[in-house]
Each structure stands twice: as structure tokens, then as C-alpha cells.
Amino acid sequence: MEEERELTFSDILRIFKRRKWTFLIIFLLTIFLTAFYLFFVATPTYEAKQVIEYKSSSSQPSVSLGSMSSAANLLGISQPSDSGLTTEIERMKSDWVLANVVKELNLVEKANENKGLIARLRGTEVTERDLIDSLKEGINIQNVQDTNMIEISYQSSDPTMAASVVSLVYSYYTEYAKNLYFEDSQSYLNQVETLFEDVSQQYDQINKEVLDFQTENKLVASSSTSSGTFDSLISYYSETYMNILKLDAEKNQLEIRKQAIEDNIFNLSPETKEFILTNTEKDTPVKDIKSKLVSDKIELETLKLNSPSSPRIGALEAEITVLENELKTNLEAIFSNDLNFLASIDMGTFNEYTGIITQLQLFDVTKQVYENMLQVIDDEISKSSPILYEYFLLKQQQTILQARYNTLLTALEQERMKASLYDNKFKVITSAYIPENPVSPNTTLTLAIGGVLAIFLGILGVFVREASDKTVKDLYEFESLFGVPDIILDDSNDAEKIVNYVYKKDFKKFGLLFLGNFSVAQNLSQRIYNILNTIKPNKTEYFTSKGNEDYKEKFEKFEKFKNTNEAFIMFDNFNNGDYILYRDDLEKIIIFIEEKTTNLEDIKEIFKKEKDPTVVYVKK
């Protein structure tokens, strides 16, 4: 007999057939509880939404400071700029905005009035900070993919509350953003006004000094030709000086971008950085090209200044273009091996990076040219006349201060115009409205989940019940574990099969061992006795095992059983002493297995003790 076997599909079907009521009860109970939760317990949640479109240059009037940015940088002032969509989204969830929403809707008072029982017992007080944090978690602000639109949404059990929160968040954000903008603008104006006042005083002072110097040295009477040449030199000097300042500002911006690429994408190792530095500044073609570019540009600027009609100018310009292209080619060749991974990741960033490196090299060349030209002009004027040189220095300061004065004046006018033309960065596409239908719980989805859960729990319940039931479930299980029984009774009243079996085998003394219900054992034993007495009146004795008999009665009954020719005894427990006492005097022991009552472990144990019992299977 095999005690363990694999579970087949047929076994599963039989299990479900046996446990169909278990499955059905669990399934219906789960569906009922799901429906009860859905319609009587769950609180409907409503979601309000508002869609707005981001206008990145909304607060920038058509006469913006874009052209002044480099000038602002070189003057050392920080210009207000567009903060970007991501920053604006975070500002919408700032404490200032949400605190005003909490106050506007009296959320603190409402929360404390509607506290739960546990919170009341604990004496917990809801604070403004708690509600701000709650709103910050509950409000969902996200960018609509591939657009400049964002969606503000909030869920609440009160549809009016949901719509109010969304509407007020945007309203207070608008006020907050406007205040921030004017604070930044005013800070910028204060910086510019302070600088403008200082430069204005310096400019007035230098104008006075120039006028006094002209009067004292009678320079006004200079010839028109020499005066024109002198003025052009001063103008060129001042313009070149300002170009150097602008060049430094632009170079700083490029250096920042270059560093950002290296830190965030390229992540150059120290060895690679040393390699790039070595290959761009030591004995390489790059150094020679840069040197040639410097000398050619100096020659070009000198010719433009002294001989503007020289045919050499065209040739130099063509040569400079060739040298610049050659410089770019050499730099790309130097970096090609170390930047292959960057090119494979992002060709656009690779091109930008190499372009920045090239531009920085060209800036170095241009700056050297400008500095050399300033030195040339300075030397030229200092040789001509000490008085003219002193006058040149004054005019140089005057022109530089004039450029700064005009830059700051324009910056002031531009920023004031921007402030007067301020516009919100967002345009409302869809206003918040009170939702009519809840977004949760989703009736269809919840019932579907409940149905799936009901099936799962029903299946689980069937197998748990099956695993916990240690009795014989059906004839198939018994046969698969212990073999085919000798006799199968369709019900517990079918005593004729037992009598026929005993009569055919001509058993004189036999025992009936019931592994099941005691009342069934009594009933069946009595019926067997009645039928045997009908066949052989008064020849067969019927004995029963009683647990409460004293020893004298027990042994007197045993002696009577031994001295009787034909008799049988009924046992309801194979572990009691009577079974041990009578077993050796029995021709046959008939074991009754009762379906859905007899324990499998009892069957295994009796089969270990009895070598050849007659097995009767009683169906239910």
C-alpha cells in the first residue's frame, strides 16, 4: 500500500466535488463582504483637476535684457532669469502657498472638529504643519508628456473641497511667484542703481578732468587730422578693452558649461585631464597653430588700424580662417580616443564639448591679440608726446566709464520696463471644477478584484479543509492508499452482505471492529445478529465490548465467549483491552471503515497490527 501519491487532475476534481459547498460559501461570503465594503463602508473619493500652460518667457517683454546679459555679467551684477518649469512646479507646493490654502479653507478647525475617537482619547491636536505636509503629499502636479502643460490634481472625499484646494493652490502660487519676481527684480535694480550711482560720479569726475586738461594744454586747437586719428585710437583702445571684459565673461560661462559636462557626463579622470592639458599646451601642433594665429591676428589688426586699404588684409583673413579650421581638426584628433564613449552616448553633447574646447582656445587667441593691440597703441602714443599720452589715458578712462555708464543706464531702463510689463508664467487651459463622479472606489474594478479574491480564497479554503480533514473522504482515496476493500456497503443498514460473507466462510467466531461512529456500529452489529438468528435461531451469541465493566464481569463474559460454539463480538476501539483479550480466539476480524468518519491514521495503525483482516467499506 502506498501512503503518498501525486495529486492528479482527477484528484483535484474529486476534491472540489467533495468540497463544493466549502468553495461556494467562501466565494459568496467574499463577494458579499466586497459588495458590503464597496457600498456601505468605502468612502468615495473625488478628484479635481486644473490644466495650465507654461509660458517660459511670459514675464520677459519684447525689449528684454537678453542683449545685456554679458554686459551685466562683466559688471558683476546678477540678472533675474527664468527659473524653469521644474522650479515653478516645486513653488506650487511651497509652504507659503499651502499655508494660505489651509487658512483660506479653515482646515485646522475642521480637522480638529472631526477627529476620530482614538485621536480624541489621546488628546491629539492637528496643527497647520500637519495639514501642510498632508497637502504636499496629496497634491499631484505633473508635466503633461511632450508639452509645456502641467496638471494640478487633488483627491478628497468632499468634491467641493477637492476643487477648492486645486483652485487655491494655483491662485496663491500666482501671488507667490509674482512676489518672488518683484523681490528679485528689486534686488537687481538695487545692485544696478548702486553701481550706476558710483559709475555716474566717476564719469562726471573724468569728464571734468578731460575738459580741464584740454583747456590747460590747449588741445582743442589741434589739427583736425591729428585729432581725428587720436580720437580713433582712443575709441579703438576703449572698444578693445571692453571686448576683453566681455570675452572674459563669456569665457567664464563656457568654462562652467565645460565643467558641467565633465562632472555630469564625461567624468574625466585625472590622467585624462593631464593628457588633454599636455596635448594642448606643450610641443604639439596645437601650440604652433595658436602661436601662428596670434601673430597673424596681431598683423591683421595692425594693418586695419594703420593701412586699412592694404591688400595683405584679405590674405591674412583667409589664412586665419584656415588656421582656425586646422586648430579645430587637431583638437578633435587629440580628443577622439578619450571621448569615444561620450560620442556613443550623446553625439550632441560630444559636439558641444569639442566646440567649447575650440571656442576657449580661440578666446585665448583673441584675448592675446586684444592685449597686444592695447600695448601697441599704448606704446605708440607714449612715444609721440608725454602730454598726448597723459591725455590719452584720461580719454581712455572717460570712454570706458562712458560705456559702463550707458550699460547700467540701459539695464535700469530695461528692468523697469520688464517690471511694468510683468505677466504670469502660466495660462489656464482648463479651470478646476467640482467633480460629479468619484474616482475611487472603482465599482467595476473592485468587484472584479473581489471576484478574483473570492475564487482564490475559495480554492484556498477547499485545500485547507481537505488538508485538515484526516478522515477517509471517498472510496477512490481509500483504494489508492490501502487497496480494494473486501466488502463495500452502500449504507450502514446493509447488513446482509456481512452475513452472506460470514455464512459463506462459515466463521464460528469472529469480531467486528468499527473505526467510526459508535451508533453506526451498534446498529449494524444488531442487524447482523438479527439476521444470523433468523438463519440459525438461538445458535449465535452477540457480545459487545463495554469500557465500564469490572474485571469479574469482563472475564466471565470472555469465558462464556470461549465456551460458545458460534459467537461474534463488536469492538468500537482497537486500542481497548477487550480487543487484545479476544483477538487470539477469533477466526476472523472484520474491520469497518466508515466514509468521512474513520481516521486515516487509525487505518494505518490497525493494518500494521492485523495481517489479514477483512475490510468493509461503509459509504455515506
Automatic annotation (TrEMBL):
GO terms of molecular function: protein tyrosine kinase activity
Keyword Cell membrane: yes
InterPro entries for this protein: Bact_polysacc_biosynth/exp, GNVR, LPS_length_determ_N
Lipid bilayer topology: Multi-pass membrane protein
Residues covered by the Polysaccharide chain length determinant N-terminal domain: 6-105
Signal peptide (residue range): none
Main location: membrane
Keywords: Cell membrane, Membrane, Transmembrane, Transmembrane helix
Domain Tyrosine-protein kinase G-rich: 402-467
Transmembrane listed as a keyword: yes
Protein name from the UniProt record: Polysaccharide chain length determinant N-terminal domain-containing protein
Species this chain originates from: Petrotoga halophila DSM 16923
